Amino acid sequence: MIIGSHVSFGKDQLLGSAKMAASYGANTFMFYTGAPQNTIRADINADLIDKAKYFMQENNIDINNIICHAPYIINLANKEKVESWNFSIAFLKNEISRITKMGINYIVVHPGNALKLNKMEALANISEAINYIIDEDTLPMILLETMAGKGSECGINLYELKEIYNNINLKDKVGFCLDTCHLNDSGVDIAKFDDYLIEFDNEIGIDKIKCIHINDSKNIIGAHKDRHANIGFGTIGFDNLINVIYNSKLKDVPKILETPYINDYPPYKFEIDMIVSKKFNANLEKSVVDYYKNGLNF
Ligand code: FE
Ligand code: FE
Ligand code: ZN
């Protein structure tokens, strides 16, 4: 199983991220190259990349499974303000060249927000933007994330995702990232995940799924909210998430936790334990607090 969580990318860059992931018992991770809410980015340090690669080799983390996530404020869907659309395109291009230097294969992107545009126009803008961003020489793959349907989000069902995908020229450089909380909130019943996979396979192709965000949801199916919950503490439930994680058709797809911190501490070490052992830990909060705050060892 390829499992990890999102981690930060601090002053030690990829090396810091890899060390954090290893401390959670993860064998992969997802990082933002800076704060997810802004586009301020430090220069990539080649020495830290080398050290990170060495550290990962020693710690059973395969660089081929590492995921980068683009910042939220990138919006490829709306070009009414053409400067901000151009900025989003330029930023993503730059982000792709930064991760190419690091040897990272995948970047997850939220398709965008239509704002006042009609959906079809917005979806066409997203494809057009991606056609500007990627060319024959682009190495990393852009992964479009399935969205919850909050506000004017694009990519909230298979129809919209397929619409974007159909208008992309270099289809071998674009894939998809499923997010279990987003799917639930957009109206997909994760208890019937196999049906969704069949539908995805018919519409787009299951081999295009390159990453799965594993989150429980604080809201009911179809709520269009997007509030993540810890594994087994939301409306999707532990067993349904375990079925997604262990689905034999998605064996080689990296699974990434984006669940909320508990009392300001990361829950991932204990959520990964739950997933690997397939045993729900009803005392997750106590485990996390004992470990990080009280320094108890496990
Ligand atoms: Fe995301
Ligand atoms: Fe996500
Ligand atoms: Zn989300």
Short structural description:
This protein is an alpha/beta fold and 298 residues long. Helices cover 38% and strands 13% of the residues. It has one domain (3-174, 193-208, 246-292): TIM Barrel, CATH 3.20.20.
Account of the protein in words:
- With 298 residues, the chain is α/β, with parallel strands linked by helices.
- It contains 10 helices and 10 strands.
- The strands form 2 sheets. The chain has an 8-stranded parallel beta barrel with strand order 1-2-3-4-5-6-7-10, surrounded by 4 helices.
- Strand 2, helix 2 and strand 3 form a beta-alpha-beta unit.
- Helix 3 packs across helix 4 and helix 4 crosses helix 5.
- The radius of gyration is 19 Å and the shape is globular.
- The chain binds fe (iii) ion (2 copies) and zinc ion.
Which labels suit this protein?
8-stranded parallel barrel; globular; two-stranded antiparallel ribbon; binds zinc ion; 298 residues; single chain; alpha/beta
Q: Which helices and strands appear, and what pairs or packs with what?
A:
Blueprint: E1 3-7, H1 13-23, E2 28-31, H2 46-58, E3 67-69, H3 82-102, E4 106-109, H4 119-133, E5 141-145, H5 158-166, E6 174-179, H6 180-186, H7 193-203, E7 209-214, E8 216-217, E9 228-229, H8 238-245, E10 255-257, H9 268-277, H10 284-292
Parallel strand pairs: 1-2, 1-10, 2-3, 3-4, 4-5, 5-6, 6-7, 7-10
Antiparallel strand pairs: 8-9
The structure holds fe (iii) ion (2 copies) and zinc ion (ZN).
